[in-house]
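Quick board copy: two proteins, each given as sequence then tokens.
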Amino acid sequence: MKLSISFLLLICLTISSALASNAHELKIKMTMPNKEAFTANLVVKGQTASIIDERENEKIFIDVTKIRDIDSTDKVSQKKYHQIYTEFIISKLDKKGKKVVISNPQTLAIENEEATFEDGKGAITLSVIPSRKEI
């Protein structure tokens, strides 16, 4: 009887750890011309999340549309790296209230290290420090 209870407890613990949801925390800093930098911490459960920068009578939307973990090993040093790939859509509301996409940045960063995206037009710089988070 003790063996079957212990075995059942082990199965329950295994299932609960498998069902524990993984998430990511993104430390975000966005700069745009003639505006103060916008900073936020965003926890992404699953693949998508959103945050709104609502200042100066304007709403800027930062949407995470995809996030995934990529593990790799340096072939020379055999050092293991945990990287996090993230896709964003940055948009704002036009005068009619319709969302207009400003940029679609993508970042690939080593966990807990900063990755920076610049759009090439000088309109947006997005810096992200990603990390994994157990919830």
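And the next:
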Amino acid sequence: MTKDKRILLVDDDALFRGVVKSCIEKLNMKVFEAENGLIALEFLHSNEVDLILSDVNMPEMTGFELSRAMRDQGIRTPIILITGNPDYTKADAVQCGARDLMNKFFKTDELITVIQNNVVSF
């Protein structure tokens, strides 16, 4: 069901991207990486993915700004924002066009559930 799905992982922390990428690849999904929202947006202009997982706090363009820019440009790919900042809420994420907000300190099974729920329903 999840085979051949494509995920764009956006985070300025290469170590975090590596850990998350490893988890996603165990689900037989293809993972693409971007260091910030600007790089991700450029990637999305010429590539299609099934889901975007993006950090909120990044240089150049935050996850909130990426989500807004995607919606403004007609890119409707579901995006899940990830943050370690407890001040952000799901309502903040949804307001800018994201589908959900995850705590950056998640357990692997939580990440898998979020991915499966969002790529299958898309």
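Board note added afterward: The mean pLDDT is 92.
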